[in-house]
C-alpha cells in the first residue's frame, strides 16, 4: 500500500476516534439530564454544582466526576457514606441511594454533570449503567 | 563636693533604671482602635465599627475571649497539627500582633470559665488550666474531662457551655436527618421509636472537674434535639439556651406534601430555653412558625398539619425561618453597647444551603432582645453582608459562626469560610 494511503487512513481513524471522545452532547440529552439534576441533586449539590463546604461535595472538576465512570455510576446507585477526601476536604452528609432512577435517567444526569459546571468529559450510556447495576446486584447477593 | 556628685550620680542611675524599665515593657497601649475602613466587609448599625483582629486563619469555629482580651479560636481542621489559635493584641489597637497555636485536635467548642480554657473535638472535651492572666499554664498537657462521645460525621460538632455550678453541657447531634431507617432516602419511614435518642439527639451534662467522663458519668439533660451548634448558658436567667438546626429536604423526600417554597421556609430554626428533662420533639415533630404549631414529621405520618403526639412536646421560645443555620449564640452582658442590648441575644446565622433552588438566606448576625429570660421583641439584623453578595454556601465570602464578648464589652465574631475575626465596638 502506498505510504500516502496509510497516512490518510491513520488521519481518518484518529479523527473519528477523537470526535467520538469530544462529541458534543445533544441539547435534548442535556435537558433530560438537567431535569433529573434539578429534581434529585440540586438541593444538596446546589444549582452551580459547588456543593456545601464540609457537608455536600462539589461536582466541579473533581476526580470523582471526571474519572472512572463505573465508580461514579456506583455512587448514584448505592449512595455514599464514607470519610472520603475530595480535593483536600471532607464532607459529612450522607448521600442516599438513587437506585430508583432508571438506567436512562442515571446516564442522562451523569452526562449532564460531566458536561456542566466547567466539566468536560465523555457521556455515560444506559448500557454502562445497566452493567454496573447488574454487577452491584450480583455482589450484594453473594 | 563628692556628696554632690554622689547625689547626681544616684539620680542619673535612678533615671536610667526607670527609662530602661519602661523600655522593656510592651509598647504603650494605643488609644484608637484600628477600625477597618470597610469594617472588614460587613455592615453594622449606626455607631458601630469593626476591627479585623485576624484573617485567613482557616475554618474558625467558636471563640472565647480572656479577661486580658486574648482571643482563643477553635479550628475545624488542625493546621500544622494544631487546632486552637491564640490571638494576642499587644498594643491595644484591636489587631492581633502575636498569633500562636496549640492543641492537636480539630473541633468546634471553646469556652473560658473559672480558671480553665475548655475545648472540644468531635468526640472529646479537654481543658487547660489558666494562670492569673487567663493564659494556659501548659499548652502541651490539657486534662481530658470527657471522652467517647459518638461521632458519625453528620452533625458531629460538639458545642459546649458552662453554668455557674461546675457543670458543662455538650451538644451531641444526631447523625441523621429525621431518624429514617435509611437516612435521607425517599420512601424510608422514620424509626419508631427512634433508637438514636439514647446516645445522640440531645444535650448531655457532665462535671467540669472529673477526668475521662463517658456517657455513663454524665446525664442526658435534654432530648428531642436534632443538632445544636449555637449553645450558651445565660448567667442572668440561670438557664441553658440553644438554637436548633431543623431538618432538611421536605420537598425532596415528600414532594406530594411540600412544594419548593414550603420546603425552603420550613421547618423553623427553633430557639430553646433548655431545662433538665426538656423534650423538644425531634424526630417526631418540627415547628411550623407559620401555623405556630409543633406538627408531626412526614416520616411519622405527618401531612404538614397533623399534631398528634407533638401536642406535649416543648415549643420554642422563638422561631426563625428555615435553614438559616444558627451557629453562634451569645447573651450580651457588657456596658459598652447601648442599653437596649443588655441581656439580649446575638445569634450568628451561618447561612442556608437547603433553601435551593429558592434563594438562600442567613449569612448574618441578628440581635434578639430579652427580658426576664424570654424574648421581649422581634429580632433585628445586627451585622450583615458576610456573604459579600454571594448568598451561596460555596461562594459566600464569609459565613459567621462564633460569637464572644470581650472584657471591654466588644463583640467578637468569627468566620469559618476563611477565618476572619472581627471585633465590633460601639463608638458613640
Question: Which structural traits does this protein have?
Answer:
heterodimer; A: 142 residues; mainly alpha; Cytochrome Bc1 Complex, Chain D, domain 2; 6 helices; 56% helix; globular; B: 428 residues; four-stranded antiparallel β-sheet; 3 helices
Question: What does this protein look like?
Answer:
The complex is a heterodimer of chains A (142) and B (428). Chain A has helices at residues 3-21, 27-45, 63-66, 69-78, 103-114, 126-141. Chain A is an all-alpha fold and 142 residues long. Chain A has a single domain (24-141), classed as Cytochrome Bc1 Complex, Chain D, domain 2. The termini of chain A are far apart. In chain A, 27% of the residues are buried. Chain B is mainly β and 428 residues long. Chain B has a single domain (35-426), classed as 6 Propeller (Neuraminidase), CATH 2.120.10. Chain B is built from 3 helices and 29 strands. Chain B has helices spanning 2-24, 250-253, 260-265, and strands spanning 48-54, 60-65, 71-79, 82-88, 98-102, 110-113, 116-120, 125-129, 143-146, 160-162, 167-172, 202-207, 219-223, 228-234, 239-244, 269-274, 278-279, 285-288, 293-296, 318-320, 326-331, 345-349, 364-368, 370-371, 374-375, 380-383, 400-405, 411-415, 421-426. Chain B has a 5-stranded mixed beta sheet with strand order 10-11-12-13-17, with no helix packed on it. In chain B, strand 18 (285-288) and strand 19 form a beta hairpin. The longest helix of chain B is centred in the N-terminal third of the chain and has 23 residues, at 2-24. Chain B is globular and about 105 Å long. Chain B starts with a helix and ends with a strand. The model of chain B is unreliable at 22-27 (pLDDT under 50). The interface between A and B is medium-sized, with 26 and 26 residues.
